[in-house]
UniProtKB/TrEMBL annotation:
It comes from the Bacteria. Pfam families: DLH. This is Dienelactone hydrolase family. Residues 17-244 form the Dienelactone hydrolase domain. The lineage of its organism: Bacteria, Pseudomonadati, Pseudomonadota, Gammaproteobacteria, Lysobacterales. Keywords: Hydrolase. GO terms for molecular function: hydrolase activity.
Length: 248
């Protein structure tokens, strides 16, 4: 395992980040940005980043909540059992608007562009829950920089909000994959239809599919709704997407 700690200069401050690379020597490797869920950077997210790196990528895991530092990551099971912690979770999510997501992404791309371990100039981006929204938002803001975009149980991807990600998909040059949880109030059927229509109209290659029996958070091991079969399927889908785009 190879893990590099870094601090990225952004428009708004200093963002701690980790860069994971495969255990074996070599490189440079195709770059991937992993957008964390709302519970923050913690061992589970780090293990997922390393799992992805071990398939042959340089994976950047930035702390998207650096503006609120110092913060401790939240335990998913505790959040769902405590209304005050849920309120804190939503406060953190609400600290990120489209402008901030894109400003941060500019710094992330600049970092990857200048790392000897990373092969560019086009990258992959994947996100979970809140991070799925961030991934699609960033792809819309930098439409030519990403060859692969993936969201797993991402929320509010096609809401009524003026900065909803689906409003900015025109021009995306990569392939989009959206893995959907069943009965997910953060991404209900009407939003799925709206996102599908926006991607189709923009001519963006995409797949939107529901994981039967899987609930919001199904791919993240420390989430109470973790579903091993769905998580394994998500890894295979993600590996196939990245291999066919970044390593084609």
């Amino acid at each position: 395992m190879s893990r590099i700690q870094a601090t990225l200069q952004t428009r708004d401050g200093h963002c701690p980040a980790l860069l994971f690379t495969p255990a074996e020597s070599g490189g440079p490797w195709p770059g991937v940005i992993l957008c964390m869920d709302a519970f923050g950077i913690r061992p589970t997210m780090e293990k997922m980043a390393q799992c992805l790196a071990d398939d042959g990528y340089a994976v950047l895991l930035p702390d998207l909540f650096y503006r609120l530092a110092p913060l401790k990551p939240l335990e998913p099971a505790q959040v769902f059992a405590d209304p005050s912690l849920m309120q804190e979770l939503m406060r953190r999510v609400g600290s990120l608007d489209r402008d901030r997501k894109l400003a941060d992404a500019a710094a992330f791309l600049d970092f990857l562009d200048h790392r000897p371990e990373v092969a560019g100039p086009r990258y992959g981006i994947v996100g979970y829950c809140m991070g799925g929204n961030v991934a699609l938002t960033v792809a819309g803001g930098f439409p030519e920089r990403f060859a692969a975009i993936a969201s797993f149980h991402g929320g509010h991807l096609a809401s009524e909000a003026p900065d909803s990600p689906h409003r900015f998909v025109a021009g995306i040059r990569g392939r989009v994959y959206v893995g959907v949880a069943v009965e997910d109030p953060s991404f209900p059927p009407e939003q799925q239809e709206r996102l599908e229509a926006a991607l189709r109209e923009a001519g963006v290659p995409h797949v939107i599919e529901t994981y039967p029996g899987a609930r919001h958070g199904f791919a993240v091991p420390d989430n109470p709704s973790y579903q091993p079969a769905a998580a394994e399927r998500h890894w295979q889908v993600l590996f196939d997407l990245l291999r066919s785009t970044l390593r084609a």
